[in-house]
Structure formats: C-alpha cells, structure tokens
Amino acid sequence: MTTQLVVRLLRAAVALLGATALTVNLIHALDVPSFRLINYFSYFTNLSNIFAVVTLAVGALHDPASRRWELVRGAATFCTTVTGIIYALFLADVSVGVTDPWINTVIHRIVPAFMLLDWWLVARAPVDPRRALRWLAIPVVYLAYTLIRGPLADDWYPYPFLDPTRDGGYLRVALFSAAVAIALALLTFGLSKLGGRHREVAARA
User: Fold this and answer.
1) Does residue 132 contact residue 189 with C-beta atoms inside 8 Å?
2) Which residue range is the domain that position 35 belongs to?
3) 24-53: per-residue pLDDT in tens?
C-alpha cells in the first residue's frame, strides 16, 4: 500500500467521522423545542468542521496539487486549528451546543488535530505568508455576522466571549477580538511556515 493511498484513506475516514459527528449532533439538536437551524450553522465550530470535512473529502477523492487548492486547504486547517485552540482555552467547561462527549471529542480535538497533521506532513505547493493572511477574513466575517445577528435573534450569541450583553459589553468583546486577531495573524504565519518547511525537505529528498 503506497503512502499516497494511506493518506487518502485516512482523509476519507476522518471526513466520514467528522460528517457523522456533525449529522448526529444536528439530529439530536432537532429534538430541542427551542432549536433553530440557523443557530446550528452559527457556531464557528460547526462551520469549520464542515469546511474540513469537504476539504478532506476532496483530498481523499482527487487530491489536487495546485497553489490555489493549497490556499483553500490551508484555510480549512487554519479554521479548525482556531476551533481547537479556542475550545481548549475558553470553552472546555462551557456548553456549546454539543450533545454527546464523543461528538465533542471529534469536532474539537480529532478533526483539528488531523487537519494540522495532514497540513504539516503532506507536501504540496507552498503558501506565501502574505497570501495566508487572507485566511483572517474568515473569522472577521464570522465576528461581524455574529454581532449583527445577535440583536436580531433575541440576543442569542454562540459563545460567551462574543456576547456583548454580558459584563463589559462591546468593549470587552472588542478587546478580546483584538487580542485574538493578533494571535490569529501569528497563527497564519506559523501555519504557512509549518507546511512550507516540510515541503522544502520533501523537495530535497
């Protein structure tokens, strides 16, 4: 069995696992009287995992090698890495709309960890750090969406640190967002270099 086949099979397996976790979580959530479908798709965790599942599925079936695809694959890795880090630092003891412990483990730990490992180990076209900064547009758009929609959805916010109705209001949210933005900018640079370093080694091998 070749390395490429193993990589594709692992991607397919993790994509299936992630899709199953997301689907089961949605099915369970449908039983909650107050559940709204748009709220499900308003969690960054769910959006990033959907992005990851699609990316892994494409990587398993087709495995493109273009620079454009690497930018997309890097964006998916960036989003799931953000999900994993934010969960570990701020949400491990907070209810975030996940019904079962195994689902929580899959979408907050297994998928992010595999995406990061896949990004690091699988050599493809390098991503310029300046282009990688485009990934920051995703959390910026998400933040804007969350803050605009919140008042229109009876002050519903997916995460406590993005809820301006709590103590500190919008100032607290703004300060938190600014600090996270700096950290995410460093993350984009780190991810672009992480993948690039391995690709340089692979090219010389």
Assistant:
1) yes
2) 3-204
3) 999 999 988 888 999 999 999 999 999 999
